[in-house]
Amino acid sequence: MAQLGCLAESLAVALEVGAALSAEGMDTALVLGTPSAPLPEAEAVVIVAPGDGIAACDALLAAGARQVLQAIAADFEPLATGRLADALLRRLQASFAPLAPSDPARGRSVYLGHLFLGASPAGGEANLPRRLSAGTEEPAGLIPFRVVEAGAGAIRAEMSRLAEWGRRYAVVDAITGEHLDALGEAARAQPLLIGGAGLAAAAARQLPRGGAIVSPPCGPGAVLSASPARETLSQAGLARLYAPTFDLRDAEGAAAALEWAAPRLSDDTPVVIAALPPAMPALGALAQGLVARGVTRLLVAGEEACEAVVAALGPPVLRMGAEADPGIAWCAAEGGALHLLLKPGTAGARDLLLRAFAPPA
Prior knowledge:
The protein is α/β, with parallel strands linked by helices. It is built from 13 helices and 18 strands. The protein has two domains: 4-204, Rossmann fold (3-Layer(aba) Sandwich), CATH 3.40.50.10840; 221-355, Molybdenum Cofactor Biosythetic Enzyme, Chain A, CATH 3.40.980. A 15-stranded mixed β-sheet has the order 9-10-5-11-4-1-3-2-16-17-18-15-12-14-13, with helices on both faces. A three-stranded antiparallel β-sheet has the order 6-7-8, with no helix packed on it. Pfam families: NBD_C, SBD_N.
């Protein structure tokens, strides 16, 4: 039975939240799309269904979820976030929800209601109560640093006070993991939470956990790197010094890439296919071809590439496994031997594309 249910606004957010829950020892399933069947047995279920949040929420409730996390990016889009939050409040018959996109472990913090990335204010509207109010029909308040610093009891009292004053949401200041833990404790009885991976981990620490059950990945490995981000280009540049690498310049080269990769597949060193933007339309079919040729460990870098590969391979459920780097976890496709490491963002150490395939210590 699910203890915690999460509704993610995107695949990138779902992967980060799922990795955080798995790292806290929760058996976590990631469901891609609005469920058409009963949800899998898991302690936490993360659903990627940005267009049908209420149907996904109903599926989580049917699976026994006691608390729902609306999982958002730190720079959330106010209209989509606000509309879904309003609908979830009504569906859950809740009168109040805290919002905390802080994730101190990844350099995201909120102070006096303002979002900071590292030491700098976030771009756009950094005032989160104002940003949220632009997308919701309900008034939003703030639980400031001085209250959060006083601990769970003070946060709980402030949430009650704000709800009595008619506030339906409150942005919560948090600059340390301890602040999020205090919020997690204070909000144990709240049906709805709104936040990211940091809040997900804090909520998980309030729950009994049986531990993840995904076996370590093994077998032939491949990397599909298709991101123009500087950090990912640097990772791919280091990988090509130690692993066989094919430069895929356009979609027409996909067949040649598969022919090149097949004799080089091994359990020890992954093959790396570095794709330029014109090759993007071929990545889904390329992933299918690699799996058909025996790849059981596939690392995909780049947001568009991750979405294309997931759509092509079509696993409806992924089980979150061990982290290869903070916030980036292997996941296993249910019912098969395939393990995916999906890296839509820029996170990860420079040697990630190689180290992810090293034998467990």
